Amino acid sequence: MNSVIDLLKAAATRIGGDTARLDAEVLLAHATGIPRGELLLNQQHSIEPQHYETMVKRRAAGEPVAHITGTREFWSLDLIVTPDVLIPRPDSETLIEVALRLRKSPPQHILDLGTGSGALLLAALTEWPAATGLGIDASRAALAVAQANATRTGLAARANFCLGNWGAGLFERFDLILCNPPYIGTGEALSDEVRAHEPASALFAGQDGLDDYRRILPQLPGLLAEAGLTVLEIGHEQGPALMAMAAATAMAATLHQDLAGRDRCVALRSG
Questions:
Q1: What's the CATH code of the domain at 34?
Q2: How many other C-beta atoms are found inside a 10 Å radius of the C-beta of residue 1?
Q3: Which residues contact 42 (CB under 8 A, 6 or more apart)?
Q4: Per-residue confidence at 202, pLDDT binned at 50, 70, 90?
Q5: What is the mean pLDDT of residues 15-43?
């Protein structure tokens, strides 16, 4: 038997990096089924280390914590995560915050383009309990994860998911559109952890990272209801490019920052 403090200290040393101690704590909480806060408050738990050792070894080799535990929290939702979808990140919560701030009335029908795990759509549905939503993705495996998350969160009755190519072939109109498309340029530096473990199809968008915006923006006027709102996630250096692209449409665009003060999304309004 090993004490909590000894296990965490040894694990953090092996994992390394800026989040080593946090990673060690999250993994231990998952391995034991004991909430992280309880582990830290009562560090006298005696724990069998074998299962934890396997998890620490995987993390030390660069596998994301979310893939080891199989879940990730987003907007207070505990979501299933697999290598078939991007791991939901706190930066993407900015899209929900901006939508809440800019919507003058509750949306009735929400579209999530490139839904992945379903994180954005399901978060929006928790904020607007009268709304229904549609998530589109080009990956059947991702759609299976999103559907499982809708069931897991109790939102399956209000969320539908369909295979598709962004907004192509959709004839409905939506009050709110959310989208976190691929926006990394093929030549950009990317951590080995992300490049090796997350789906390339959800990361890369041509040499300049803008290819999917070029597809999505022309579709938006035909998808938005009157007074509708779109919120697009962007890379933190892509604000000027996206604002220039938006200027070529009939929609009014505004740029919004995340909690770190970096450009994170562009909001576009229909007339």
A1: 1.10.8.10
A2: 7
A3: 4
A4: very high
A5: 87
> Which of 171, 68, 197, 175 minimizes the C-alpha distance to 128?
175
What is the per-residue pLDDT for 45? 62
In this structure, are 117 and 12 located in the same domain?
Answer: no
- Estimate to the nearest angstrom the gap between the alpha carbon of 153 and the chain centroid: 15
pLDDT, tens digit, 9 for 90 and up, residues 205-214 = 999 999 999 9
Domain end residue (candidates: 61, 81, 109): 61
What's the pLDDT score for residue 2? 63
pLDDT for residue 245: 93
Instruction: Please check whether residues 40 and 101 belong to one and the same domain.
Output: no
Residue 43 pLDDT: 64
Taking residue 152's Cβ as centre, other Cβ atoms within 10 Å add up to: 16
Q: What's the distance, Cα to Cα, between the start and end of the chain in Å?
A: 65
pLDDT class for 44, splitting at 50, 70, 90?
low
Please check whether residue 204 lies inside any domain of the structure: yes
pLDDT given at position 40: 77
- Domain boundaries, position 23: 2-61
| pLDDT exceeds 90 at position 87 | yes
Q: How far apart are CA 143 and CA 114, in angstroms?
A: 10
